[in-house]
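Exercise 3.2. Students should predict the tertiary structure of the chain below and write it as structure tokens, then compare their answer with the key that follows.

Predict this chain's 3D structure.
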Amino acid sequence: MWSELDGGKKEKYKALITNFASLSEAFSQKVSSDNMIEIIESVAPIVNSKFQETAFQRAFGAVGEDIANTSYDASLEIDATHKYLVGIKSFGFHSGDQKIAQFKASSVTGGWSTILAEARSNAERLGDKNLADKENAPLYLKVATELANLRNERIASSKELVKGFDASDVSVKAIYHVLMPSKKGEDPQIHVGETDYRPIDIENIEILGSTALLKSTNFKFTDGQHIYKYADADSQLFMKFHNKEIVVDTWQVSYLDDAFSFFENLHEETIDVPKRKNVDRTISWMIANEEGNVEESSGFNGFDGATKLSKSNGYREKRIDSFRKKYENLLSETDMNFIISHLQEILLKKYPKKEDKREMKRVRSELRDKMISIDNNEMKDAIFSMVYRPVSEMYIPIPESRKFHDENPDFFGERIGTFNNGSKKLALNKEGRTFELEFLPSGNRIPSYINQDDGKGIQSINKQGILGEWILRGVFQLKEYEQLTGKRLNDLGINAIRLIKFKDKSGVIGLEFTWIDVENPPKDAVGWVSRNRKK
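Answer key:
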């Protein structure tokens, strides 16, 4: 990536970073020598990680990302068909392994600590690292494989967000961009490093053993591309960056003679800092409910609702009979009877209550498992088209939608959030409720509108299937007919949505998938999580 970036922009980035680092001596500490004379201890150039991220965005026009549990901090467009995911890091040039991911929630649901507790017990019993590593290798492999799958899904999801739903010709590469300052006492320099940020090659995972006999719950492994270390205490994944081998540029740092004078006189400087984003306001909300569950049968799980097959003129009975006649020679009598009886129970029986609908879904799950075991895609598609809604059907639900629209009737556009008196029906017709939904960071736009009772859904106008396929299969990495769950959200590090209303983009609303700390939600949060906001 570094070699592809504009030279002038790289110089601007260098100036921002080295100018900041030139103030490092202001943060040095006084120490006493043997003859009691106070001296200033030499310091390493300081690289502040948050400033680094902002400087990178400012210099290269990159888009900052705000998703937990992922290793990337920005996305960068080289041209219309060439984009980068960038993990931005800073660490000392002589430092060791670096944290690249965390799996707190997933490690609990996966029982990784229990697995590694067995490894610790084996190590204590054997008292020899080599013997313990050999016996524990299958345990380490199980954890390594599971965390590798999660990491790869996060990477794939991140790439989909940057690529967008309408970009078959867009190439998205991922890279770690690192700044590595020299250590104290050395010539002050900052080394620019770059290395691949790629999925873990699961097929080639090789366990390298525990980090130490007494730390047998921590282990190392490689996939032939990188060397990783997993630490059980905080469910953290580390990676060896091979610091000296990844250097692509080196910057000299010159310290200011009097850094304190700079700070003393800073207020006298006239600084004109242009606004980076022309944002009117934002709102964010959790995708799951307060219990951590994603709504069933609607919203992102719209496909899981009851079938929309017509009931008039015996249409459902005819569909069942048609299936029997078409496939009776391909199935055993036992299998055919199983399928027909389940179709009849699902399609012909009434399910008025919530408990009844749960029973219908149980029967449908039995039928689904049977069709998967038969392993005939044409037959499976014929059945699923009868008992499910379209596989990519979805809309984006707005929590406490009536309250939100009443308080913000013009958020999506003039009077879009208004209702007929005493009604749940929106006042404007469909054409009057439309706007452009812009997905960030890809920049893809799609005509959308507010729909349903109480205006609870954001729905695309003419690309519902394409949008659903991208969000469900791409962003959330779900298989067909797999429900979005709270666990999946935690695994991917995406649990929330943020909408952005721009000052300079009339009729355009931005949308990004993000992460909200439930214990400390942002000021723009709405819905149940907003009640956790500290006052």
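Discussion points: Residues 306-387 form one domain. The first helix runs from residue 7 to 21.
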